[in-house]
Amino acid sequence: MSNTLSIEQSHQRFNELFKELISATSLTKADKAQKLMSQVDLLAADQNGIAFLYDNITDLSKAGIFAKSSWEDPSKLVPTLVNGTLKSGHPNSTIEILSELRMLAIAEGKYDHKSVKTDEAENYIQEVFVGNLEFVFKEPKEETRLNMDEVELTKVHELFVFLSSKTNLDSIKEKLTEELTLICEQRPVVTENQRRIIALVKEKIELNPNRKEDQKLLQFQRCIYRPTKNTENKTADEYENSLSEMSNSELYSESQDMSNAMLLYGLVSQYHAVLLLHLIKNEHFSIVPVCLGLNPTGEVKWNEYQDFISTLILEIIHRYNAQCIYGLAKMLEKGIFSRQAVRSSIDNMRTIKIHPKVEERILKSTNNPHHDVSARQYLIGALFRILGQPLGVGQGNNPTCQSARGISMWSQHSPAKLINMIQIAATHNDLSFRFEDKEIKASTTAQGLVQKLDHNLDAVSVTIVPMLDRIYNEMMVRASGRGEDPHKWVNPALYGQWIQIGFASAYDYLSNSILDFNGFTKVFYAMCHPEYNGGHKLIYPNPVGIFITSSKGEMLGFHAVSLLRVDEDPEGEMRAYFLNPNNEGRQNWGQNIRPSVYGNGEQHGESSLPIHEFAARTYAFHYNTLEVGAKVGNVPENEVLKVKRLAKESWGKSYTWLETPKQW
Based on C-alpha coordinates, what's the Rg of the chain? Predict the structure, then answer.
């Protein structure tokens, strides 16, 4: 009742302010419009308000709400500029929302505008929709998260929920196909983003299997909804019943088709879980490697640990927890089960009692948790994905890039340590680390960078990230005030013995400047570039600090990535391949610097840039002090100057630069 009353009062207030705008003189009109826009801002916070604004958008437009602004003539609007305007905050974001509603009204024939035709408005809305999928699914990129507060994010998300309910998406198939391909090529651990797009296509777009442009979208759909011919027109239960009627050769063929569908894009159907469980329960063990799509190494490991893995499959995998099958397959191919410590740690996880608060976080992170799947199943299933896809770990809409890259690093180089950490965190809702011979316990430290956890994460991350964040923040506090970047001491303590002792930072705390950037760049190249370091490759991920810049190259903030390798791409260009844990490996960092995730020699989950472009955004990294010194002379000056120019003309404008040579 109170909510209904509140809505009515909000609408009444809008109507009052709207009448004042209509009756305003030329002298008072701007003031009245400003007051009305404040009320529009409040209404835009939910679907009821957006719908109310849409019903009134024609009257608002005719009353002059867009007069004497950049939005006055809709025929001059550019869809690619919408994203930036929505990120700029009120009042620009609010009038942009009204602008989209006006264009939608024109597209639907509810507003006859002299300068924009119906089909033009429809095309405009479609382009805006595709260019803002981060808002459609409330999965903001790093730049967006840094620039927008939660209120603004919610407001813009509500707009796109409304637009998606009214938009004809048929003409944006090619763009959606490209978007799905690039997301899937990254093999993210959390697959809700691409599943939502696929579901949206299935619901909103009619596809013709005879049209080439539709065939790939149909492939995406089939991976999830109909991965094999035998699953067509069958529910999961009906499919399960049909399996008992198949011969061994038919099951083998079915398993081939099922695994091929999974490996195509890394997406797993619930039918896959039904088939895999049928094979285990009926002891068709020789077909299981085919069902999992294993390479020769994976098949050897399956044969070696068949009993243990069969038990895990029966206990953990469920049709509503099926995505972990892909992670399990990749674990086998990586040989992770060969480690006794890993098998023992996973065995311990099977019997843990999860802390109620952790269980709550796990279930909250799960899209529509099913009553037949326990929090422990979701957690161990997520563990399979993390261990099998260590480069698919993301931070969600959280300022926790440090924690995400730690989870990725441990899953690659110390999986037993990670599993033990998860077990402790899951059972006690607490973690402790040692920092300079003193214990740091998460439960007794101050709040970290996370004010409110975004649960759009995997179950492993929601279990341990809140604690890792607190511990990291406490380490940073204790290491502050030493005249150098605290990460020099924090990174080795947080991540472990894989981090090199040497630490280089472009920023000098004592002089508050960028000091000896030439020397800094030479050390970076000597650390990782094969042409100047004797052909050596990186062995462990290097925690690198980078400057985040806008599409105009302007300084926005700092970010943590892991440099994984430096190698030639298929065209012979030397590139830096790195883990970017901020959900989305594709960015626009200005100066035509755009990290790619596919097509330049990237492995699943890697982002990459030409080495000089990556170096131009780097401000801190670790290195071996015993090896680099003799190699810095190998780095040519022209390469250093190329990096320096990009740096000074972007984030470098925010700092004073000193050329005084420094002892590295």
Answer: 27
Would the pLDDT of 51 be above 90? Answer: yes
For 362, other C-beta atoms within 10 Å of its C-beta total 26
pLDDT digits (tens, 9 = 90+) for 358-371: 999 999 998 788 99
Q: How far apart are the C-alpha atoms of 378 and 626, rounded to whole Å?
A: 45
Instruction: State the maximum Cα–Cα separation within the chain, in Å, rounded to a whole number.
Output: 84
What's the angle, vertex CA 32, arms to CA 30 and CA 37, rounded to 5?
A: 95
| CA angle, 637 then 640 then 646, to 5° | 140
Identify the H or E element spanning 185: helix 173-185
Cα 41 → chain centroid: 28
pLDDT digits (tens, 9 = 90+) for 228-269: 999 999 999 999 999 999 999 999 999 999 999 999 999 999
Q: What whole-number distance in Å separates Cα of residue 203 and Cα of residue 176?
A: 14
CA atoms of 321 and 325, how far apart (whole Å): 9
- What burial letters (b/e) apply to 626-637, b meaning 16+ CB within 10 Å? eebeebbeebee
- One-letter amino acid of 131: G
Among 322, 323, 327, 326, smallest CA distance to 236 is for 322
Q: Which residues are bridge partners to 574 per DSSP?
A: 568
CA distances from 241 to 245, 254, 274, 277, 314 (A): 8, 14, 10, 13, 18
What is the chain's mean pLDDT, rounded?
Answer: 92
For residue 542, give the amino acid letter: N
Comparing 32-41, 132-141, 238-247, 452-461, the range with the smallest average pLDDT is 132-141
**In the numeric block, which tokens belong to residue 235?**
């529910």
* Alpha carbons within 13 A on the beta-carbon side of 30: 4
SS3 438: strand
Residue type, 107: A
Q: Between 118-130 and 173-185, two packed helices, what is the crossing angle to 10 degrees?
A: 0
- What is d(CA 263, CA 258) in angstroms, rounded to the nearest whole number? 9
